Amino acid sequence: MCVTAKAGKLTPLRLPVLWLLLSIFVSNSASAVDPNNHISQYAHTAWRLQDGIFDGTPRVLAQTADGYLWIGTMSGLVRFDGVRFVPWDPPNGEKLPSQRINSLLGGTDGSLWIGTAVGLSLWKNNHLTNYPDQRGVVTAIFEDTDSTIWINVSLSASKTPLCKIDSTGMRCFGASDGIPPGAYWALAKDHQGNFWIGREQGLGLVRWKPDSHETYGLKGPKNTEADVTSIAVQSDGSLWAGIDVLGPGLGLQRFVHGVWKPFLTPELDGSKVAVLALLLDRENALWVGTAKNGVYRIYRDKVEHFGSTDGLSSDYVYKLFEDREGNVWAATSKGIDNFRDLRIVSFSMSEGLSTEEVDSVFASRDGGIWIGGPSSMDLLRDGHISYVLAERKLSGGATSFFEDHANRLWVGIDNTLRVYENGKFRLITSKKGGPIGMVYSITEDTDHNIWVESSGPLSRIRDFKVEEEFSSRQIPAAFRVVADPKSGIWLGLINGDLARHQDGQTETFHFEHAQKSRVEQVVVNPDGSVLGATAHGLIGWREGRQLTLTPQNGLPCEITYASIFDAQGDLWIYAQCGLIKITKEELQNWWDHPDAKVEPRVFDAFDGAQPGRAPFGGATRSPDGRLWFASGVVLQTIDPDHLALNPLPPPVHIEGIVADHRNYLPRGGLRLPALTRDVEVDYTALSFVAPKKVRFRYKLVGRDTSWQDPGIRRQAFYTDLRPGKYTFQVIACNNDGVWNEEGATLEFGIAPAWFQTNWFLLLSLVSGILFSLVLYRLRVGQIARTMSARFDERLAERTRLAREIHDTLLQTIQGSKMVADDALDESSDLPRMRRAMERLSGWLGQATQEGRAALNSLRNSTTQTNDLAEAFQRALDDCRMQGFPEAVFVVEGTAAEMHPIVRDEIYRIGYEAIRNASQHSEASHLTVRLLYSQNLVLTISDDGKGIDPEIASRGKDGHFGLAGMRERAHRIGAKFNLTSSPDSGTRIELTVPGRIIFRNTRPTWRTLFTTVSGTHPRDGAS
Q: Which of 440, 740, 835, 884 counts the highest number of beta carbons within 10 A?
């Protein structure tokens, strides 16, 4: 679940200041690390020089208002966002006075004050200001409540070690103001307005106000010189002073009412440590950084130590720092270290346990936590651990625990069962008098019977005596036994099922499992519902219904080790992926709707979870409400009633933009080059509690229609951006889901290439429209021509049909009419009438044939064989049958594939010419010549009387023969030539271009074939 923090819309310039105000407002609720925990129980992370992170030794740390952590090293500044370390150099050729950084301060106005080995610098509003008037080693920087900056300057040539900087400029104070000359290393201010300045070489402290001052000297044993390196002011006005002792001396001292008091406890002799750094955190715990002994923490006179043997990067600690979220940082000679609180606190041998293997845990009613291991039995009470078995000189290890109604503790120790009462153990034996076996689980029913599940049979004990033993044939083999609050007991079976034994009867409830695995722990609730933890999720029984809670129902992982309810009724599951919390409302919804999905909260490794399977009791709840879990390795605890929420929404920053592998600073109005393809936006959010749990959402306005969820990734990638203006927005939430919805924004644009500009697009649009119009006009013209051609074809076909009917059918009918009229003139002459009727019958038969031929011409080609020679041969045969004396047919060349329509038109022209010659020329000889060459040439000539010149040129009224031949020739693009005279007869020549008539091949010459008097060349005549 996420908590949203809204602060209204902020401009980029106002964000750091407003963010600082917000952080100040919630800083009181942002807790520090819990001083009641051991340092070893904090989350500890170290970044070391050997990892190549720093070029120089870290010396100081600070945090600016924008949330960044700054690390000053011996070779420059490094900026850290929790994930990435970035070496920092001033832009625009600006330089620090020195790369050796001695002090840092993050100002309330968003500035960063940088104290170097040769002077002071200020980084503010992306500009670096150096202060050349005050040169020297800047050892300490302090910001007063009125935002005035105070600095310590040691080894200053001007002998003015204390300076203040405000809106009027810089003013320094020296001997004339009551500050003796010398080197000063520490600076602090108490609640009475006194400045305390730490001096070197045993000169002690200087208390200074503009109107009063006093010096408090300090000498160690045998006048050892000592430098006061650090000062911590407590709320009661007393001081802690850290002293870097040059030889045996003082170390850690308290200064109360002008008196030096050494700090001495059994854990720490303050006089034997050289102190370099002090930090008084928000819980008033004092952290001490030493020169050789690592870190100490003092809280209520209790001392904790953490050194290099515990994982500290080095025992030489230069500086300690507490960030805004309460995390504690240490700068050491070999790196930096971070300490932060964990929601789940662990106990191991580092915290005093006597075992490295925690196999069971049990909380008694008096608040004691009993911890069992393979060779131990420990008791944790009020933060103190006692070793029960060792103290009573018993060997073995504790397996299971149970506290009965009389507050007696029943314990499984090795293969025995014992009762622990008043500091003594009482042995319980089996019915045969021997050991009961390794005890897995113990419970007490409503009748005060003690039930024990062990490696032997299930036992029922009454008054410390085994009354009954049940074999696996009587009651299925189990691993867990728990009392039913009404009556009887529940058992978690080794095959993954549940069973209930009540009133001498046993009922088994079978569950479907991918593989049979035992029930690790059983929880029986007052309402009678039962839950069992298995390797395949939780199994449940309620009012006769059997349910399973698995990843299909929203469980984050499948393997569960233990489960327990807290005081509010919420369910906690110790599972493979961490500690899972399911609210009672979510759980009730699952009970009512088994297919419903839960929305759990997961505490993972970043929260301290180290889940694992404990062989015996894996979970318990102590009277104070804390939950305890045994993982098989460590003991872990969480306090559901005091889960500190991290209230600070993380500051969000856009750190850079990379376009086509070129880096750009994230400034407003950034314009990327034309044809930019790959764009990467780098962003971050500053939360140091658990940086790897910071989640992001981003959106690119102008491209994305909704928020993108990259999870913890800190880059956004785009490869398909077109020219235009864009606004990148990114928001983030911290480890507790508190969102900074203001986030950060970056406006940038991509320039268009010349072919992506508006004028080019407009020109392209206009050109496209014009081109479309031209294509449209061409297409319309093409359609019009096609339609016109179709109309012309129809008209031509009608004209051809008219010619056919005129030249054949009408003439035949006209002849038939003349025969009929002739017969009717002398109707009394019967023989003549008969001859007339016979002639009329012939004419009508011919009319029928001619009509059928006209109809066929509408459907089929004149010749299906594509052979004009054969078609003309048939025409000549018809002429000979009508009495034509002599006809010669000559074919030259090789017949080729012809276009059928053009071929038919040629045939019609030639057939009309042959018929005219046979009917009207009165010729005695007819020659038809067909030449296949580059072109097709048809020649028809006779020796008849010829054609009247006027008729040859204009045609005869009412007749369409010559006109039809000319029209056909024109249609097929042929040349038609007619010559005629009374002496030489008539000659018609038709020339058709080869490109029109021939389809695929060009004709080739071959032997000349000649047909004389109607003999076809295939008959062998030549």
A: 740
| Burial of 709 per CB tally in 10 Å (0-12, 13-18, 19+) | exposed
Q: Extract the tokens encoding 949.
A: 């010149």
Span 493-525, pLDDT tens digits: 999 999 999 999 999 999 987 567 899 999 999
Mention every residue, 6+ apart, whose C-beta is less than 8 A from residue 340: 33, 42, 43, 325, 326, 327, 328, 688, 689, 690
Helix, strand or coil, per DSSP, at residue 210 = coil
pLDDT > 70 fraction of the chain, expressed in percent and rounded: 86
User: What are the CA-CA distances from residue 717 to residues 660, 665, 713 (Å)?
Assistant: 11, 17, 11
Chosen domain end from 860, 880, 912: 860
Q: Are residues 788 and 871 in the same domain?
A: no
Query: Residues with Cβ < 8 Å from 670, sequence gap 6 or more?
Result: 657, 664, 746, 747, 748, 749
Q: Which residue's structure tokens are 């080794």?
A: 494
pLDDT given for residue 803 in this prediction: 62
Residues 1021 and 884 reside in one and the same domain? yes
DSSP H/E element including 804: helix 758-804
In this structure, are 761 and 747 located in the same domain?
Answer: no
**Higher-pLDDT residue of 32, 165:** 165
Tokens of 462: 């009454």
Does 40 fall in a domain?
no
Give 308's pLDDT tier (boundaries 50, 70, 90): very high
pTM, entire model: 0.75
| C-beta of residue 694 within 8 angstroms of C-beta of residue 743 | no
Say yes or no: 854 and 940 in one domain: no
End-to-end CA distance of the chain: 109
Residue with tokens 């025992």: 315
CA 858 – CA 874 distance, rounded (Å): 20
> In the structure, what pLDDT confidence band is assigned to residue 860 with cuts at 50, 70 and 90?
very low
What is the rounded distance in angstroms from the CA atom of residue 681 to the CA atom of residue 656? 6
Say whether both 856 and 875 belong to one domain. Answer: no
Per the structure block, which two tokens stand in for 650? 């993380």
Q: Is residue 831 part of a domain?
A: yes
Torsion sign (Cα): 871, 873, 876, 882:
negative
- Are 737 and 762 within one domain? no
- Domain contains 9: no
Average pLDDT, the chain: 86
For residues 711 and 790, membership in a common domain is answered with: no
Q: Residue 445 in contact with residue 468, Cβ under 8 Å?
A: no
Residue 921's pLDDT band (cuts 50, 70, 90)? confident
**Shared domain check, 727 and 661:** yes
